[in-house]
Amino acid sequence: MSNMQQYVNAFMEAFGVEESAVATLKYQDVEAWDSVGHMQMISILEDVFDIMMDIDDIIDFGSFEKGKEVLAKYGVSV
Amino acid sequence: MNIEKNAIITGANRGLGFAMVKKFAENGFNVWACARKPSDEFETKISGLANEYGVWIKPVYFDLTDEAAIKSGIMEIYKEKKHVHTLINNAGIHYEKLFQMSTMKEIRELYEVNVFALMYTVQLVLKMMTKQKFGNIINISSIAGLTPYSGNVSYGGTKAAVGLFTGALAIEVAPFGNIRVNAIAPSRAETEIISHVSEASLKKGIDNCLLGRLAKPSEIADIAYFLSSEESSYINGQVIRVDGGASNGN
């Protein structure tokens, strides 16, 4: 499975959204993406890509698009 | 399903920490025994325990004043992809000094190790616990964080911070699964730390204790194990005072 598909799946799993809704998703756009949901999504991504994100990056991870930049810092290209 | 039980214990090379390593190993826990510096003596001791109790005990070295080193140490554990049942934040530094005689450097050092390093360790280990949706975090506080007395403004302040942190964190992590967070507030125990305490202060502590003695490290380790076990499954967000009744004697 490609990194992009795993990235999309993480959003779908964490927030219970359809694949078509993921690309434009931002923090608090949906009820499930609250602070608890955010940490759950981070946890899935860390597991999938075998990384451990710094707190600054976790805070910065405010959208699907922004997340790609954050992951790039850890050598994960999506 | 039987899940392998694994614990991370900081400050594991001596005193309370080593007593906890022994207690957990005796009860079938594998342990990541964290200490500041590599030591043959330490590795021989934990290897002996591991053989005696049929578990693994791995040394993990990091300096709590170095954030990058803490992350690297915990990453070492994280990459093993094993469950972390229990984290015991035992490592800490101690001194008693009048506030007006304490330098800001000394006070910062106390907070750096006793509070900030502990918090950072918890942040990192929580990443594993929230994934697995269970875990026990046990912070070693002190009765110095519950009762004010002369000479404990700085050290007591750090331990009070650990107590409040414990209760608040228990609330924050509750949505992530069965993750309990508790603290132990021991009085002085028979460890090397008492060599930094004045004779008069030590005597006062013993005189105030209903049992008339210091705690044995194993008595504190017993409580840590209890808090990690299913027998304490309804205890959460608490600071458990373990002081031989000293609080009743005052």
Distance linking N and C termini of chain A: 12 Å
Which percent band covers the strand fraction of chain A? Answer: under 5%
Could you describe the largest sheet of chain A, including whether it forms a barrel?
none
- What spatial form of chain B do the alpha-carbon principal axes imply? globular
Task: Break the fold down into its secondary structure elements and pairings.
The complex is a heterodimer of chains A (78) and B (250).
Chain A: H1 3-15, H2 19-22, H3 35-49, H4 55-60, H5 64-73
Helix pairs in contact in A: 1-3
Chain B: E1 6-10, H1 15-26, E2 30-35, H2 40-53, E3 57-61, H3 67-78, E4 86-89, H4 104-132, E5 134-140, H5 153-173, E6 178-186, H6 199-208, H7 217-228, E7 239-242
Parallel strand pairs in B: 1-2, 1-4, 2-3, 4-5, 5-6, 6-7
Helix pairs in contact in B: 1-2, 1-7, 3-4, 4-5
Give a written overview of the molecule:
The complex is a heterodimer of chains A (78) and B (250). Chain A has one domain. Chain A has 78 residues and is mainly α. Chain B has one domain: Rossmann fold. Helix content of chain B is 44%, strand content 16%. Chain B has a seven-stranded parallel beta sheet, sandwiched between helices. The longest helix of chain B is centred in the middle third of the chain and has 29 residues. Chain B starts with 5 loop residues before the first strand and ends in an 8-residue tail after the last strand. The mean pLDDT of chain B is 94. At the A-B interface, helix 3 of A face helix 3 and helix 4 of B.
